[in-house]
Amino acid sequence: MIRTVAETGSTNADMLLLAAAGAEEGVWLRAERQSGGRGRQGRVWASPVGNFYGSTVVRVRAGDPAAATLALVAAIALEEVVRVYLTDTVAPAEAGGAALGHAPAGARDAPAAPACAGATMWIKWPNDLLLGGAKLSGILLERAGDAVIVGIGVNLAHHPEDTDRLATSLAQHGVTPDSADFAETLAEAFSRWLAIWRGQGLAPIRARWLERAHPVGTALTARLPDGQAIDGLFGGLDGDGALILRLADGGRRVIHAGDVFLL
């Protein structure tokens, strides 16, 4: 079920309240606009009308993989959906993998933007989606008891110009999906990958994430919560979904939390 409101402060904050009141797993809340949208580490998330802002709740059960790995689930579901909309503009080398059963309304009808043809799309750890090297979306997980709130923001029609990170939108790449249609397609994909995560464990989620991530050997900088910055090469994910950095001295560092930047 997807509930839509014209405006709210934050869909994550609202979903936390709904979860506390007993909201069942699978419920989504979508806002046309947020006045207090936020990203990881308290960053402001610009929320003009035309983009997607939505949150859902997962009720963690005994035997589920670690709750933090729901970030990987959200990332691969989102990447799958965006790829359908960008069928004609994403670089051929990046295409492949499981496809959704249908093309969302407007996904194939909009003209491709010639300047963006061939743009590559990668997932960057832990859950950013990069299109043509710029940030397209963000995912924020918050937990209260057995409820994990998964918040997702996607730049469909607009993207910020005044941030410290290059950003982009689907409109800049030739398609402008309807946010309600995007919500339906994303909810379907997330539900399907959540069932795999719960029924088969983390292994297939990790494998899919690695297929869609920047290549092994990509130069990265990881900025840790304590302010330390570590340079290295992407070495994949460990069995728990943490980032592996290969260091210049031949060692490796496993990163469980932090911001990652491509060099």
Automatic annotation (TrEMBL):
Catalytic activity as recorded in UniProt: biotin + L-lysyl-[protein] + ATP = N(6)-biotinyl-L-lysyl-[protein] + AMP + diphosphate + H(+)
PANTHER family the record matches: BIOTIN PROTEIN LIGASE, BIOTIN--PROTEIN LIGASE
GO molecular function, one term: ligase activity
One Pfam family of this chain: BPL_C
Name the record gives this protein: biotin--[biotin carboxyl-carrier protein] ligase
Domain of life: Bacteria
Enzyme class: ligase
Keywords assigned by UniProt, alphabetized: ATP-binding, Biotin, Ligase, Nucleotide-binding
SUPFAM superfamilies in the cross-refs: C-terminal domain of transcriptional repressors, Class II aaRS and biotin synthetases
